[in-house]
Give the backbone structure.
Amino acid sequence: MRTAVKILLWLVGGLALLLAYWYWYLLGLGNAQEVYLVPQGFRGVVYILFEQPNGVPPEREGWKRIYRIPRSGVLRTQFSFQEGPGPLPEFFWDSAGQRRPLRYQILNHRRPPRGVYVSTIETGSGGCYFDAQDRPQEPVDYESFIVADSQNVKKFYTELREHEYTPSELICDITLTDEDSVKRF
């Protein structure tokens, strides 16, 4: 009888640990909160390229990851890409260290919001298949999002979708340049 109770306790304990891990994963507690600091007045598409050896070293505030977006809109970071669900990201205007909230809005054509906001967060993996010396290249994990007002967010989104480049080709162009500039639409 004692052996059966021990086995039952081990099974219940194991199941409880499994459920706790599953709950932890679903809530995204394994991923850090991400904070995006966008330069005051920036409008356009932001690209974040992950695991860049010469990129900006990781910056944190407590457990939060900090992404300081340069005026060019292209951030190369040494952070690795976070897979799986996580807490909702935070967006701020950044002007000389002063932060003001910048809201995130899902693209809604029927009721566009007023003011400037962040929309259309995309993640993926892309880049060049070969470098300038025809050496094979690994794909680059990236995120992109749009910062615009309701009149221009649709324009940026449409131009991104209708542009002759695929997202992978855009990332390829970015990775081939030493500059932090990308063709703006």
Observations:
- The chain has two domains: 1-30, 31-176.
- The two ends are 74 Å apart (CA to CA).
- DSSP finds three helices and nine strands in the chain.
- Confidence is low (pLDDT under 50) at residues 181-185.
